[in-house]
Amino acid sequence: MTERTRPVAVVDDEDLLDDLLRVAAAAGCELERAPDIAAIRGRWARAPLIVLDDEAAAGCEQASLPRRSGVVLVARGVPPPALFERGVAVGAERVVGLPAAEPWLAGAFADAVEGPADDSGRILAVVGGRGGAGASTFAAAVGSPRRLGSPRCARTVERCLSIVTQWEADSTSCWEPRPSPAFDGPNCASAVVG
Question: Is 50 within 8 Å of 59 (Cβ atoms)?
Answer without folding.
Answer: no
